[in-house]
Amino acid sequence: MSEATKPAGAASGVSAVSATRTASTAAETAAPAPFAVPVTVRGYETDTQGHLNQSVYLQYAEHARWSALHAAGLPQTRLVAQGIGPVTLETTIRYLRELRAGDEVSVSCRFVWGEGKTFVIEQTVRKADGTRAAEITAVCGILDLTARHLVPDPRAALRELAAEPGALGLA
Length: 171
Hints:
Order of helices and strands: HEHHEEEEEH
Shape: elongated
Low-confidence stretches: 1-29
Oligomer: single chain
Number of helices: 4
Strand content: 25-35%
Distance between the termini: 20 Å
Largest sheet: 6 strands, antiparallel
């Protein structure tokens, strides 16, 4: 994987993403550095203002998530062979700084494991100088491809299969 690098309550009006972001921010100082991949912004990915098109941020995030799974020893073919696959249930993007063609960025991927059928993946798109360009938060699960239901413990399912669980925060 030559591209990848591994740097050393709806009822109350608060989404799962917001609650998890608050909880994970407090623990972030103790957490290991997230998995990250480099990406170069290509000209055809920009809009008429010369900014990276909003939909491309989702592609970059998806690329980083699949790269993290691959680094953990869980390429798509292996997951499908095991009868499971990751699903995204909710995504939030915060745009912080513009990106333009030629910008070199790093897209990080930090898995935040809780209890239950879902987990959160926090991602940051950073420019080469360290400036945060975007924050992407996704609520995800692991789908049983036969039953078409989320597996009850996604952390255990991935830890059991992963050759390198540290890429997923499962060390």
